[in-house]
Amino acid sequence: QWATIRIEKGVKKAQPQMIKTPAANGIIERDETTMEKEIAGLHRVDFEFSDIFYFCRKGFEAIVEDEVTQRFSSEELVSWNLLTRTNVNFHYISLRLTVVWVIGVVVRYCFLLPLRFTLAAIGITSMIVGTTMVGQLPNSSVKNYLSELVHLTCSRILVRALSGTIHYHNKENKPQKGGICVANHTSPIDAIILTNDGCYAMVGQVHGGLMGVIQRATVKACPHVWFERSEVKDRHLVTKRLREHVADKSKLPILIFPEGTCINNTSVMMFKKGSFEIGGTIYPVAIKYDPQFGDAFWNSSKYNIVSYLLRIMTSWAIVCNVWYMPPMVRKEGEDAVQFANRVRSAIARQGGLTELPWDGGLKRAKVKDAFKEEQQKNYSKMLVRNGSIG
Predict the structure, then answer these.
(1) Is 16 domain-assigned?
(2) 139: domain range?
(3) Per-residue pLDDT at 33 exceeds 70
(4) Where are the beta strands (DSSP E) in 194-289?
(5) What is the pLDDT of residue 41?
(6) Are residues 347 and 196 in contact, defined by beta-carbon separation less than 8 angstroms?
(7) How buried is residue 74: exposed, middle or buried, by Cβ count under 10 Å (0-12/13-18/19+)?
(8) Is the distance from CB of 161 to CB of 137 less than 8 angstroms?
């Protein structure tokens, strides 16, 4: 009874705010007042040492709970989903639930995992063999048809291996050939989720190992765009190859995740502008997973790909919603950054995700000096405007 009341209270209080203002449930309450207004309230004209406290407070806020780092950890649930025992609020509730959890472990690891592993092996093997065979055929409409059939069939087998339950909305807006499909990025399985409903030309870096074998096999049957490490650094070469692909209206739509890294199913971070300099029609797609059945987010800094796949294949299921959105084109006078921001905002609204302006590269890299200098310039301009610097 105590656990039920606690869960109900958590749902009533937290659920309405999960989508609109997830940061409001954090450790600290942030003041969104701009630097100019807040410091102006402390003094009128000259520099004062009290200004330092503003920057100190902002620094402490960033250290305690910045809005970027928390997007690279698993989404917090309002109730325990019987998958982990690490949630402090539901670490131990009752003996009855502990027994249920143990039974769940047996079911997931002893029954579901072997079945899912078998299906995954069948899907991957079929993908390699099927695309290799189709790749031997001469270019024709028959080859394109067989390639799409192999990709669709194998992707659907792989989705079954994850016990995937996917709800596709507004299918009349599905990406068309010659276009660019742009989606938010939560997991490596995002591509499989989308390919389960239609074929795409993938864009990515050449890998080794099993992933490299799959890439070399699939590119023979389908015009995927794989880049070597040296090519990825040459942005102009990448843009040229993508433009050539988009110019051919008979080729499959390109699938791009412009965030460049996986974000934890709660937010959409900065879209890299390169995808929006190519030209052509952009088809936005919003993907939102249901964390109650399994955590689809891949924290690549914490788990390697094998550990990640083991985690999702031992979850209850992968449940998600996919929204196809009306196509968008670049407006006259709009640069690539503005266009990227407009597409990102549309995806965030549709998926009920928080929109953040930060670069997902902060997951592994330090903050650029340009961001620090921007704050210094703003403060200097404010002092000059107030007349404290002659």
Answers:
(1) no
(2) 95-363
(3) no
(4) 201-205, 225-227, 254-256, 267-268, 282-289
(5) 54
(6) no
(7) middle
(8) no
Cβ atoms 295, 75 nearer than 8 A: yes
Query: CA 355, CA 341: separation in Å to the nearest integer?
Result: 10
Question: Do 326 and 250 contact (CB within 8 A), yes or no?
Answer: no
Distances (CA, A) of 219 to 171, 240, 338: 27, 18, 33
**Residue 119 maps to which CATH number?**
3.40.1130
Instruction: Summarize pLDDT for 300-330 with one digit per residue, the tens.
Output: 777 888 888 888 999 999 999 999 999 999 8
Structure pTM? 0.76
Q: In what order do the strands lie in the sheet with 225-227?
A: 164-169, 318-324, 282-289, 180-183, 254-256, 201-205, 225-227
Q: How far apart, in Å, are the Cα atoms of 269 and each of 164, 263, 302, 357?
A: 25, 8, 20, 6
Look at residue 23 and tell me if it is in a domain.
no
Q: Is residue 62 part of a domain?
A: no
Q: Domains in the chain: how many in total?
A: 1
